[in-house]
Design goal:
The chain has one domain. The protein is about 70% helix and about 0% strand. It has one helix and no strands.
Length: about 60
C-alpha cells in the first residue's frame, strides 16, 4: 500500500513540475499574440493610400 502512495505522490509531483513550464508557454503565446496584433495594426493601411474604387467589373456588370 505504501508503494501506491509513493507512486501517486511521484505522479502528482511530476505533473506539477510539468505544469509550471506549460503555464509559461501559455503566457508567452498570449504575449506573442498581442505583439502580432500590434504589428498588424501598425502595418494596416490608413485607407487614403489605397482608395477603393468601383470599376463595375462585378457580377453582371461590364
Amino acid at each position: 500500500m505504501t508503494w501506491i502512495f509513493a507512486a501517486v505522490s511521484a505522479g502528482v509531483a511530476g505533473l506539477a513540475a510539468l505544469a509550471v513550464p506549460a503555464a509559461r508557454v501559455l503566457v508567452a503565446a498570449r504575449e506573442l499574440g498581442g505583439e502580432l496584433d500590434r504589428a498588424r495594426r501598425s502595418l494596416r493601411p490608413t485607407g487614403d493610400e489605397f482608395p477603393v474604387t468601383d470599376r463595375g467589373t462585378g457580377a453582371g456588370g461590364g
